[in-house]
Structure prediction request, 109 residues.
Amino acid sequence: MARSLVACSLAFQVQSISGVALAVILSLALSWRLDLVAVAIQTAAIRAFYLKAKMMTSMSKKMLQSQNRSNELASEAVGNHRIITAFYSQEKVMTLFKEAQIGTTVDYP
Prediction:
């Protein structure tokens, strides 16, 4: 059963790839100018989707790091709340927490 599932999947992939290749070859033969424009647009679309995916992974990594830093700071502040209160450091802790939260900015590739 697994062998037939793999064979069907592989056959579908081969059929799809050969269909796309045949379509490109026929379109080049029949209307090469229009095909060159279509290939250029398709290449730009593929690149845009790739850059979007890369940007999203980068942004999610940076957000996770920022959240981890702010969570560590918050748990440390809760654990040491008596010391923070004794030295009147609430403003300093809140400033550090806000700075850790701002760390979610993303640099675009």
User: Anything to note?
Assistant: The mean pLDDT is 86. The two ends are 45 Å apart (CA to CA). Residues 32-79 form the longest helix (48 residues). Helices lie at 2-30, 32-79, 81-86, 90-102.
